[in-house]
């Protein structure tokens, strides 16, 4: 039945694939909007509250809370809805919410800026799995990993350029223009997605309720060895990153005995490593199975974090940070490619919606206790604990390490 639908035929050259190009262009506009918004809101709230820690922390809550609350729901709806329409409407609604925030900001309270982050973060939980679904529909199996490499490289580039662009726009033009730029970027993203081929007719959801579909998603993940192991790996990595994320500044001030401003060098070196790692992953994507990329990335990151925790020399710390950045695309590309390769099209949204909160939830748990662990034991103990969690994470993937790369995408079982 599915063969009657018109689809974009995957071409040998990824950069001639209409779906891939539209999603990458959309991603570029979204990254500009997100980074301008994030830095404008951060610097604006710092200004308005004189650096109040609670107000600043609420920005992160607005960004991460939707992952817990809406990721699984959004993923379930993404499996029900036509992907192109879902993504375009999410971008349009994000832009409209941004312009409402702008009007309220001009005539009302400054506290409305939190909603600029919150609303688009909620909508992205519906949009992001739809993008994954389109990759599954319109890319051949051997193109998926290369596509994910390019997608990840876009994120890596903005890890370096994003803070610079966001800070420049806010400092040059202020909060009103920054929010307006964000809204325009979301509209441009919707415009790029208009070049996607028309959605094919979606299968009817039948009699199943939303709750039943959510349950079948959980059952599907638990029933697939690769996805269950990936979930455990996600949790271990999330726990590990949560320990070190809030404490990087102490690595500079306590371990290296340098002024806090030197943190920027660690972040910059990490970002450059991510760009080079993403580019290298593009070159080798076809030859290395995703689970091997993931294991290798987790191993190097675990060792890098261990070295950073012990190092008292700036150059050794910078080299370790560079390798961490270099391997991060391997982890993210490996995870996303495995999800796409091992998941049937009808379950992409729900699988994504189950695994994403596992990572984010684990990260938030350890972020909340990282400071206490550091005070009770030491900074070195916290970093070494994080390194051990990365090694545990890679052990979960070892049972599928030698699994052969599939040459065909999984076919949806007809019921």
Secondary structure: number of strands: 0
Number of domains: 2
According to CATH, the homologous superfamily of the largest domain is MFS general substrate transporter like domains
CATH class of the largest domain: Mainly Alpha
Beta-strand share of residues: under 5%
Q: What is the typical, i.e. mean, pLDDT?
A: 88
CATH topology of the largest domain: Growth Hormone, Chain: A
Based on CA inertia axes, which overall geometry fits? globular
Q: What is the correct CATH architecture of the largest domain?
A: Up-down Bundle
Percent range of helical residues: over 70%
Helix-strand string: HHHHHHHHHHHHH
* Helical/strand content category: mainly alpha
Subcellular location: Cell membrane
Organism: Neobacillus rhizosphaerae
Pfam families: MFS_1 (PF07690)
Protein name: Major facilitator superfamily (MFS) profile domain-containing protein
């Amino acid at each position: 039945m599915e063969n009657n639908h018109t689809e974009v035929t995957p071409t040998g050259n990824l950069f001639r694939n209409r779906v891939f190009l539209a999603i990458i262009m959309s991603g570029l506009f979204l990254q500009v909007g997100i980074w301008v918004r994030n830095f404008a809101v951060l610097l604006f709230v710092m200004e308005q509250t004189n650096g109040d820690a609670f107000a600043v922390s609420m920005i992160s809550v607005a960004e991460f809370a939707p992952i817990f609350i809406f990721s699984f729901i959004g993923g379930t709806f993404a499996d029900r809805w036509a992907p192109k329409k879902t993504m375009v409407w999410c971008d349009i609604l994000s832009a409209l919410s941004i312009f409402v925030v702008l009007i309220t900001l001009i005539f009302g309270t400054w506290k409305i800026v939190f909603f600029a982050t919150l609303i688009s973060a909620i909508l992205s939980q519906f949009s992001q799995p739809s993008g994954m679904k389109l990759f599954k529909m319109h890319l051949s199996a051997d193109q998926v990993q290369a596509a994910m490499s390019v997608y990840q490289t876009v994120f890596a580039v903005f890890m370096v350029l994003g803070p610079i662009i966001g800070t420049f726009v806010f400092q040059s033009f202020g909060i009103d223009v920054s929010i307006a730029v964000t809204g325009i970027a979301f509209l441009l993203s919707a415009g790029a997605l208009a070049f996607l081929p028309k959605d094919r007719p979606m299968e009817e959801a039948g009699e199943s309720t939303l709750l039943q579909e959510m349950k079948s998603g959980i059952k599907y993940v638990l029933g697939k060895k690769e996805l269950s192991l990936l979930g455990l790996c996600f949790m271990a990595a999330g726990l590990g990153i949560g320990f070190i994320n809030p404490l990087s500044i102490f690595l500079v001030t306590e371990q290296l005995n340098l002024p806090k401003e030197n943190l920027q060098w660690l972040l910059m070196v990490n970002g450059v490593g991510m760009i080079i790692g993403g580019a290298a992953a593009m070159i080798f994507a076809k030859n290395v199975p995703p689970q091997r990329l993931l294991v290798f990335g987790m191993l190097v990151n675990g060792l890098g974090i261990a070295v950073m925790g012990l190092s008292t020399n700036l150059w050794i710390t910078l080299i370790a940070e560079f390798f961490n950045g270099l391997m991060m695309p391997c982890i993210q590309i490996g995870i996303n490619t495995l999800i796409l390769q091992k998941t049937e099209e009808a379950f992409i949204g729900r699988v994504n919606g189950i695994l994403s909160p596992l990572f984010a939830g684990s990260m938030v748990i350890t972020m909340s206790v990282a400071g206490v662990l550091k005070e009770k034991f030491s900074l070195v103990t916290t970093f070494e604990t994080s390194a051990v969690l990365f090694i545990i994470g890679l052990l979960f993937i070892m049972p599928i390490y030698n699994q052969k790369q599939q040459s065909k995408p999984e076919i949806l079982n007809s019921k």
